[in-house]
Amino acid sequence: MSNVINVHELTRRFELPDRDVVAADSISFHVGAGEVFGLLGPNGAGKTTSMRMILGLLKANSGFAEIHGFRSDDQPEEVKRRVGFVSSSAGVYQWLTAHEMLSFFGDVYGMSPEDCEARIELLSELLGFEKFLHRRCAGLSTGEKQRINLARAMIHDPSVMIFDEPTLGLDVVGSQVIFRHIDLLRDQGKAIILCTHRLEQAQRVCDRFGLLHEGKLVLGGTLAELQQQTGRQDLVEIFVDIIEGKYSSKEISAPEESSV
Ligand SMILES: Nc1ncnc2c1ncn2[C@@H]1O[C@H](COP(=O)(O)OP(=O)(O)OP(=O)(O)O)[C@@H](O)[C@H]1O
Question: Which label site among 42, 108, 221, 227 has the fewest CB atoms less than 10 Å from its CB?
């Protein structure tokens, strides 16, 4: 499988008045087309910092990330064109309807009005928001807004999707909509990074994992590989071990054709 996302020794330090924090410490991994990579870790592990660097929103101290061969530090516009980013903190435009907001973003990505309209129709059907397509976003529930956010991130049909806590604040049904959609995107051949604290869903939906702790990737691989490495059955148990400091840092090895 050829790699769509390549992250190579990505490092970022923050200088605080009393100390330095290494939020990402030489992080390396890859994600191929049709693969969901779970970048998981406890609070403060460095997930958001890593994703911001991959998206070209934050400069690395060293190392780099590439999307389809475009480096996010050198060619952030090429990267943004190919990536859809969904986070729990992204807001909707309260004064616009969902349709107006999606049309606006389609225009930003240079889509023709006809293509954009067809895409909105498809996405509203897929994500089940036809009913509130013409309602102002201000009046929508958290779950309804998140469906619109997901559609916004996908309006330009990017080949890479990055999800940062996409189900925060959503109920079981709302979360299922998002996770089912991640399954669908994988089937369409997208390369996907998922950061979430919902470990059971992550365990079900992700093909491979990178487990972060204090800025370092301490474990990596498929669930079967993680089980073999740790002797634990599920991610919750592995997480508890990580938080208790059981594992030292280890870089995820380069891809092999036979691996996942
Ligand atoms: N702008 C910043 N200035 C200083 N320190 C920062 C900054 N951004 C992140 N950090 C620190 O870097 C570390 C990693 O933070 P990051 O937000 O990447 O973690 P996370 O894994 O996304 O956590 P969470 O699951 O809580 O969202 C934390 O110690 C955090 O306090």
Answer: 108
Q: What's the CA-to-centroid distance between 195 and ligand 1, angstroms? A: 14
Distance 90 CA to ligand 1 centre (A): 17
Give me the count of residues in the chain: 260
Write down the ipTM of this complex.
Answer: 0.97
The dihedral built from the CA positions of residue 151, 156, 159 and 160, taken in this order, carries a sign that is negative
Token pair of 128 as six digits: 């089940």
Tokens in use for 120? 């909105």
254 pLDDT tier (thresholds 50, 70, 90): very low
Confidence of residue 257 (pLDDT cuts 50, 70, 90): very low
Q: Cα separation of 13 and 20, whole Å?
A: 7
Mean per-residue pLDDT of the chain: 89
Residue 32 has pLDDT above 50, yes or no: yes
Q: Which residues contact 9 (CB under 8 A, 6 or more apart)?
A: 26, 27, 28, 62, 63, 64
For residue 237, give every residue at least 6 positions away whose Cβ sits within 8 Å of its Cβ, in sequence order, or none: 230
In the reported structure, the alpha carbon of residue 41 is separated from the centroid of ligand 1 by a whole-number distance in angstroms of: 12
Structural domains of the chain sorted by starting position, each given as residue range(s) with its CATH number in brackets: 3-90+159-243 (3.40.50.300)
Residues 32 and 30: their CA atoms lie apart, in Å, by 7
